Amino acid sequence: MWRRTAVNIQKAIRQNPRGFLCSPLIHASGNSFKGINAFALTAVIGSVALCTNANNEGVNKWDLKDKSQCKADDFLYPKIEPYKTGRLQVSKTHSLYYEECGNPNGKPVILVHGGPGGGCSPTMNRYHDPAVYRIIALDQRGSGRSLPHASLEDNTTWHLISDMEKLREELKIEKWQVFGGSWGSTLSTAYAEMHPTRVTELVLRGIFHIRDKEIQFYYQSGASFIYPDRWEAYRDAIPEEERHDFLSAYHKRLTSPDESVRLPAALAWTTWELSTSNLIPPEDAVDKSMDNARFAEAFARIENHYFMNKGFFPTQNFLNDHVYKIRHIPTVIVQGRYDVVCPMETAWEFHKAFPEADFRIVQTAGHSAGEPGIAAELVRATNKFKNNKNY
């Protein structure tokens, strides 16, 4: 049965690629797959993958290519340099780095990076049309180029929300689009729920709500069944007698004053995440994650700090419980079907609580914004909103 379905799907792709991608098979709107085997569907799309330059005006031209030829660069805007950089002193301790790219008089968007602790990267500037958008990147407390590096002092979700507001006021922006993935989706949602009148649109990817079941799945037992080979290094960094609670065991090491204890733990933690973020992990994922100890220290320390404190939210379902405050805000949610870092259950529950949002499932992707299907949908979302003059 599924083989006949596969043939029909391939035929539909060849005859009308754009129409197929816009069908419920690709974009979930609450409908099921009507009995189609998801793995069979993935195999079919893998053999006849769809690529397009999503940054072309209107996304009018679609090309059929072998999946192996698709890469995020097929969809992203060209690399750009900031026209302005600055620092925002948000407390006696913390000085935050920010930069602006694109059109100084354009539609403002704040880029909310992941982790927490990940910092902004130049690639994050490439999901928005630089001729239209005023693109603002902010390194959160302790992250990226912000100082002090890897600091946990006065570093909570509520501090970060306050920092975003201080930057908005500093830049004299009335409203802005909020764009964030992974932890960035968490902070973006929390910010919007606290300041709904300041948000024009939300573009969210890899939904994460820092609930116990999400943390347990990825850092204790769950994802290890899918990536046992990548799990071993993460597991072996902790003595066997402490492995009943990896989060606490890593916390003890990541907060150690001894760098020789802290850095190996940070590298093991960071390598686990970076090597499992793609549906098909790059062969050099482990090597790349081991190259930057400075990045790993901030990434691992700050992530673990937030996870130990349950994101500093008062309840497990805080974001879904307060979603009524933002259901009027135009929103796109992009989720990789095979995301093991932020499994799709959280995105699905968020979608059920927020049915007005445009929920897009990428069937051939994991967690990373750098996967071709994820990149294409994120650019499609920002293009959808770029002519909104609601700022």
From TrEMBL:
GO biological process: proteolysis
Entry annotated with the keyword Protease: yes
AB hydrolase-1 domain residues: 107-369
Gene Ontology annotations for the cellular component aspect, listed alphabetically: cytoplasm
Residue ranges crossing the lipid bilayer per the database entry: none
UniProt subcellular location: Cytoplasm
Main location group: cytoplasm
Keywords noted in UniProt: Aminopeptidase, Cytoplasm, Hydrolase, Protease
Enzyme Commission identifier(s): 3.4.11.5
Substrates-to-products reaction catalysed: Release of N-terminal proline from a peptide
Keyword GTP-binding included in the entry's annotation: no
Domain of life: Eukaryota
An example Gene Ontology molecular-function term: aminopeptidase activity
PANTHER family, alphabetized: PROLINE IMINOPEPTIDASE
UniProt xrefs under NCBIfam families: pro_imino_pep_1
Family: Belongs to the peptidase S33 family.
Name of the protein in question: Proline iminopeptidase
Record lineage: Eukaryota, Sar, Stramenopiles, Oomycota, Saprolegniomycetes
